């Protein structure tokens, strides 16, 4: 029986590179874990941010005043809607209703105006409505 001895030659440079890349990979995974796990904390509702009620702000589109109603309780935004939206306005501005619904869903879910994604189809309409919602929330802010 003959045994064949195999000799493995490792260069120190290759070992060092492998260790460095393994450590960097582990650090990257830990960083991603901590970034995304800390952002998932839900609002506890313990602090008072708003005075409860329904607050309005007006946006004017082609001599038509639309009121944006923001309903809040002490710690959260409950709903956002257009209060006096009629058929003529929705005919003239067909993107206004889907835009306000999209913004309301994002804002009520995140409880913040930060990181709201504006629609690529109608960014100007989204920005106008977002500014109007911000005005109403300033009125609702607890003093």
Descriptive report:
By secondary structure, this protein is α+β, with helices and mostly antiparallel strands. The protein folds into two domains: 7-41; 53-140, Sufe protein. Chain: A (Alpha-Beta Complex). It is built from four helices and three strands, in the order H-E-E-E-H-H-H. The chain has a three-stranded antiparallel β-sheet with strand order 1-2-3, covered by helices on one side. The longest helix is centred in the first third of the chain and has 27 residues, at 12-38. The N and C termini lie far apart (91 Å). The mean pLDDT is 85. The chain crosses the membrane at residues 15-36. Keywords: Membrane, Transmembrane, Transmembrane helix.
Average pLDDT taken over every residue: 85
Count all strands and give the number. 3
Number of domains: 2
- Beta percentage is 15-25%
Query: What is the CA-atom radius of gyration, in angstroms?
Result: 27 Å
Assigned CATH architecture of the largest domain: Alpha-Beta Complex
Across the major sheet, the strand order is 1-2-3
Low-confidence stretches: none
The termini sit apart by: 91 Å
Could you name the CATH class of the largest domain?
A: Alpha Beta
Helix content: 40-55%
Q: Helix-strand pattern, N to C?
A: HEEEHHH
According to CATH, what is the topology of the largest domain? Answer: Sufe protein. Chain: A
Largest sheet: 3 strands, antiparallel
Number of helices: 4
How would you sum up the global shape? Answer: elongated
Q: In terms of structural class, how would the helical and strand content be classed? A: alpha+beta
Q: Looking at the chains present, what oligomeric state does this protein adopt?
A: single chain
């Amino acid at each position: 029986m003959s045994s064949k001895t195999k000799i493995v030659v490792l260069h120190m440079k290759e070992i060092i590179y492998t260790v460095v890349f393994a450590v960097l990979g582990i650090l990257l995974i830990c960083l991603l874990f901590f970034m995304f796990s800390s952002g998932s904390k839900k609002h506890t509702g313990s602090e008072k941010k708003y005075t409860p009620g329904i607050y309005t702000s007006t946006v004017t589109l082609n001599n038509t005043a639309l009121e944006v109603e923001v309903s809040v309780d002490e710690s959260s935004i409950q709903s956002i809607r257009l209060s006096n939206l009629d058929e003529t306005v929705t005919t003239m501005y067909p993107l206004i209703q889907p835009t306000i619904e999209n913004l309301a869903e994002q804002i009520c879910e995140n409880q913040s105006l930060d990181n709201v994604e504006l629609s690529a189809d109608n960014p100007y309409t989204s920005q106008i409505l977002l500014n109007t919602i911000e005005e109403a929330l300033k009125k609702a802010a607890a003093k």
